[in-house]
Hints:
Elements: E1 5-10, E2 15-20, E3 61-64, E4 69-72, E5 75-76, H1 77-83, H2 86-95, H3 101-113, H4 119-126, H5 134-144, H6 158-183, H7 197-206, H8 217-229, H9 237-246, H10 252-264, H11 271-282, H12 288-296, H13 315-331, H14 335-348, H15 351-355, H16 363-372, H17 380-401
Antiparallel strand pairs: 1-2, 3-4, 4-5
Helix pairs in contact: 1-8, 2-8, 2-17, 3-6, 5-6, 5-10, 6-7, 6-17, 7-8, 8-13, 9-10, 9-17, 10-17, 11-16, 13-16
The protein binds carboxymethyl coenzyme *A.
Amino acid sequence: MGRDTLTITDNRTGKTYEIPIEHGTIRAMDLRQIKAAQDDFGLMAYDPAFTNTASCKSRITFIDGDKGILRYRGYPIEQLAERSTYLETAYLLVKGELPKLSNLNAFVTNITLHTMIHENIKKFMDGFRYDAHPMGILVGTVGALSTFYTDAKRIFDPESRRVQTHRLIAKMPTIAAFAYRHSIGMPYAYPDNDLSYTGNFLNMLFKKTELKYKPNPVLERALDVLFVLHADHEQNCSTSAMRGVGSAHVDPYSAIAAATAALYGPLHGGANEAVIRMLMGIGSVEHIPAYIRRVKAGELRLMGFGHRIYKNYDPRGKIIRQIADAVFEVTGPSPLLAIALELERIALADDYFVSRKLYPNVDFYSGIIYQAMGFPLDMFPVLFAIPRTAGWLAQWAEMLLDEEQKIARPRQIYLGSDVREYAPIDHREE
Ligand code: CMC
């Protein structure tokens, strides 16, 4: 039987070290004892973009990228998408277990009662330019919420964390919808607490002059399933931002603003928009072979394909593909769907994509659905930020309560100048 250790021989000194392996991982700090000389700082690991470094132990989300598996708290995403709701899934993420009926009812009531925002926040939002990007408004406004809820600074008080969690899950759709209405010059539509979480969101987005907005039940459920699929995805860029900024013990509104800002980036929350632009650019099915040729020549990327973690069909992509048909029955067919389907068919039969394990990811079909439901492209990352709030909060609380965590503070390899003398400005050469 082998031992759960790693033996390292430092060829600079000839010394050998035995380092424990736990959970398939060595501790980077165990490398520090490896020194070339007495005054040497000790060995460090260099891992730009943390592609092979675990930054935490987590019990929230499990992904097996090779097998295409995604589970929240052990429950397969397929079962949650089919049988759960977004708010039940949010409860599961933040509390760790599926709720009993009474717990779920209390949670839903709490979220529903917190959907309103302070009138001064509305005035604050009025200050944005008429054409402001709704994601920029969301970043700024959710950060500003910290000035309205000063009790949020008590991050080690479980009751304060519970209330801020309800407020954030409840208010993100309100701010998002107000941001959208502001960007199109429409008056804000207030929350309707008779409606479901997604039904109310659709109300705040699309209500016109009718006294009572009635969401289409198919679209309401489709959006709810999309929210379930986007609720968490372990240590991605925005979650790392949430944990990193939260590790400075800032209030959760400021940390969520940082996470939302990370999600604003086109490499993270913006890929589904890029898919739509790509499909519109291709224009028709006949142009696909030429487009694929350019992708294979390295001139372009097939947007919505490939993933850092999934080297198989993204399980979220499969579920979204099924939702698409139900949505198009209500909205009418999307002209982009035929192009997407043919693109997928050709790519999945082509050795370039097969050998590189490039499969459709979550973004390949989600944008087509959002567009068919009437969302403008600018709103796509916002539709990602709303459901991801539950995941961010679950990860934030786990980080705060983890005794091994400290303020995030990576090391660097310094390659700049050695020490040099300051020269006054009139002594410097032009
Ligand atoms: N189209 C064409 N070729 C690709 C693509 C693509 N979409 N993705 C990867 N490749 C090729 C790449 O050129 C490379 O080929 P080679 O080995 O010949 O140089 C190989 O596949 C490996 O690519 P990589 O860039 O090392 O892979 P990565 O893990 O760093 O990148 C990715 C992952 C998602 C950034 C990338 O696949 C990509 O740019 N996809 C398109 C954008 C996209 O759909 N992003 C949404 C990701 S899902 C949302 C989320 O979960 O946050």
